[in-house]
Write the structure tokens for this entry.
Amino acid sequence: MARVLSEAQRETFARDGFLTIEGFADPADCRALIDRARGIVDAFDPDAVRSVFSTKRQQHTTDDWFLSSGGEIRCFFEEEAFDDTGALRQDKHLSINKIGHALHDRDPVFDRFSRDRRLAGICADVGMADPRLIQSMYIFKQPRIGGEVVCHQDSTFLWTEPKSCVGLWFALEDATVENGCMWGLPGRHREGLRKRMARDGQGGVRMETLDPAPIPTEGEVPLEAPAGTLILLHGEAPHRSGANRSDRSRHAYAVHVIDGACAYPADNWLQRPADLPVRGF
């Protein structure tokens, strides 16, 4: 397969644990994902299931709507979406935190975008022998109530043996410090994985501590990204995003890829139904 990344880009990724590629996605393709996500929310009944996504409380980890979403398309609310009476504070389109976790397999619009052959080339460029798409998320980062995503490493949630997870994060709208862009810690991916989340065998999950040392925050940098930007993330690269208190949304789409040459344990939180095997590009 022909290389997609230049030698300089590969060196940057190896050094920093992330790589920003502006202008990767066509504006029309970004708009197509935004429109399709709106259609999914249009069809979603907010009274049917009220699952809240929060990286601070992680209450979703004991929520079957979340734990069985590995092969489905499901909506999850922002933590601040509801008032004290349990009613939505505003329209459902301004209340959803994200849609996950199998958009890339269950929806044709997201499938086409996710299986761009350039992405297969990028995964090969960073050392994957058999790249396969395991998870996808549409992230809204809603105006004024867009939730904080605390510092984490993607391999915590998508463990393989050996570790192989790579994140492909696309800015569908401009991502700035003001509306909750990502922040990265250059070079910290070389310091190892701190935690691993796994199923506990009792209908919930457990968080295993692999290294008790906290991830340092010194030297973090904002990863501001104009619409159309791709940010490539090493699975052990610590990153976060702030809350969005601005009046502008920060829509993004993320796909996580693992190497099919590696083992994917049966106690990973994200499991796929038998009729939906993990596929490549």
Notes: The CA atoms of residues 181 and 198 lie 28 Å apart. Residues 7-259 form a domain with the Jelly Rolls fold (CATH 2.60.120.620).
